[in-house]
Amino acid sequence: MPVKSPDPRRRPRITFLMRRLQQHYARDIDTALRESGFSDIRAGQAQVIPFVPPEGRSVGELAVAAGVTKQTMAQSVDQLVRAGYLERQPNPRDARSQLLFLTDRGRAVRAVAAGAGDSVEQHWAELTSPAQLDAHRRFLEKLLGQLDATEPGTDPGPTRKGVRG
After folding, report:
1. Which helix (H) or strand (E) holds 84?
2. What CATH number corresponds to the domain at position 122?
3. Number of domains into which the chain is organized
4. How far apart are CA 55 and CA 45, in angstroms?
5. 76-87 residue pLDDT tens
6. pLDDT of residue 27 exceeding 80
7. Which of 139, 134, 112 is nearest to 122 (CA)?
8. What does the DSSP assignment read for the chain?
9. How confident is the model at residue 123, as a pLDDT?
10. What is the band of 42 on the pLDDT scale with cuts at 50, 70, 90?
């Protein structure tokens, strides 16, 4: 069944379609997290986890990588620290700041979220075709690469070689 945009006289905007896909994706990630015993974290909070590398990052670096404000990231980080997914450690390069690292619980939730994300994409490939899903991914990667190249200072975030939630 075709997706209807809010204005029936227009074809749906790509951003509207992507937002709808994100809603489906987030719902499935939330379900997987709850079923795995992570009922205290939502998909929105789990989206921070892929941006935390083994060497740690500051709140400001996480905010840039995730494309959100430092204040928004600080709020998410505080919740994740309280819930035991992240820990703060002194920054050896800057005594005025701290770096954030995944705890064992954070690494476990990363694995669950990544596995759930793989399952969601597998389901989408079954609903369409693997070739269509790959073509869509290539299109988005190309578009994002072009946008990132024209917007200096943006961080493309984690790649498939790293971890993507």
Report:
1. none
2. 1.10.10.10
3. 1
4. 20
5. 999 999 999 999
6. yes
7. 134
8. -PPPPSSTTSPPPHHHHHHHHHHHHHHHHHHHHHHTT-TT--HHHHTTGGG--TT-B-HHHHHHHHTS-HHHHHHHHHHHHHTTSEEEEE-TT-TT-EEEEE-HHHHHHHHHHHHHHHHHHHHHHHHS-HHHHHHHHHHHHHHHHHHHHHSTT------TTS---
9. 97
10. confident
Q: Is position 34 within any domain?
A: yes
Q: Which residues contact 99 (CB under 8 A, 6 or more apart)?
A: 55, 56, 57, 58, 88, 89, 90, 91
Residue 89 lies in a domain: yes
- Tokens 């404000």 sit at which residue? 69
Single-letter residue type at 156? P
Token pair 């700041």 in the structure block, residue: 97
Q: List CB contacts of 105: < 8 A, sequence separation 6 or more.
A: 83, 84, 85
* 129-162 confidence digits (pLDDT tens): 999 999 999 999 999 999 989 976 555 555 444 4
Whether 79 is covered by a domain: the verdict is yes
Domain that holds residue 18: 14-128
Residue type, 70: K
